[in-house]
Design a protein that fits this description.
This protein is of the alpha/beta class and 264 residues long. Helices cover 20% and strands 25% of the residues. The protein has 6 helices and 13 strands. Strands 1-2-3-4-5-6-7-8 form an 8-stranded mixed sheet. Strands 9-10-11-12-13 form a 5-stranded mixed sheet, with no helix packed on it. Helix 5 (222-232) runs antiparallel to helix 6. It starts with 40 loop residues before the first strand and ends in a 5-residue tail after the last helix.
Length: 264
């Protein structure tokens, strides 16, 4: 049985060192690989948000490794009627708490449910805060099983039927399991009105020089899974990757990176 995924393990993710900002609304620090978009609002220590469409927001949260090095991860939130839906929960419970409080007080759209896109800590680490608040956390069965067997601090409590075709989870939000890639459980979310794809760690931004953490990857399946993504969402204009800036070239760049894999 594998050891628990920790911040030290996350050092293999395709992200670089950052310096944290110190005041809400202040200028973003000069970082690598970069925030999701250039102008993000700091709503709490290590938690940033920006509106990228009608009722659609991207969030970037900061996790620290054991050696103190900070790392960034992106997620999303979409307003849905009187409520909102959170996509990925950040690294730590306090980050999820900050996002939930902000959605309730600033947006006036309290989070009613959340979805995690795979079992790694940068997606799931904050989910204990959601559980404490009785906010249901949805994931496909493979994510729940992998979270359990790797002893993650939170286990999603609402199984999601495997979305082998794009399936609605909110207003203007479709979830899809394209097949294995970064992990064998990675799912993606598409926002058709905005033509934005949340690719998570399954998709790499065009500045990435490699595929990042492939310890749990399904390298043999990844190219075909990427092809299914492109076929499912041919109108996608840009991508929110798991780490780094939003990027219209991310799908093409990820395919280019996969071409350099050794034969499986």
């Amino acid at each position: 049985m594998r050891a628990p995924l920790t911040f030290r393990f996350a050092s293999a993710l395709c992200i670089g060192a950052v310096a944290l900002g110190t005041r809400p609304g202040g200028p973003l620090p000069d970082i690598a690989p970069g925030f999701a978009v250039p102008d993000m609002e700091r709503i709490a220590d290590g938690v940033y948000v920006a509106q990228i469409g009608r009722g659609l927001w991207v969030h970037t949260t900061v996790g620290k490794l054991d050696d103190g090095s900070p790392y960034l991860a992106n997620g999303a939130l979409i307003e849905d009627g009187d409520h909102s839906v959170l996509i990925d929960a950040g690294w730590k419970p306090r980050e999820a708490d900050a996002l939930v409080d902000w959605a309730a007080t600033k947006l006036k759209h309290p989070v009613s449910k959340a979805y995690v896109t795979h079992f790694h800590y940068d997606r799931l680490g904050g989910a204990t805060a959601l559980e404490r608040r009785h906010i249901p956390v949805f994931a496909i069965p493979a994510t729940i099983e992998l979270a359990r067997t790797t002893h993650q601090p939170a286990i999603p409590d609402h199984p999601l039927n495997l979305p082998s075709a794009p399936s609605p989870i909110a207003r203007d939000a479709l979830i899809f399991f394209p097949g294995g890639g970064h992990t064998r459980d990675n799912v993606i979310v598409y926002f058709p009105n905005e033509r934005i794809l949340f690719g998570g760690c399954f998709i790499k931004d065009s500045k990435a020089t490699g595929l990042g953490n492939i310890a749990d990857a399904d390298l043999a399946a990844w190219p075909a899974s990427l092809g299914r993504t492109e076929a499912a969402f041919p109108q996608a204009a840009t991508v929110i990757p798991g780490h780094g800036p939003m990027d219209p070239r991310a799908l093409t760049h990820t395919r280019d990176l996969l071409k350099h894999l050794p034969a499986q």
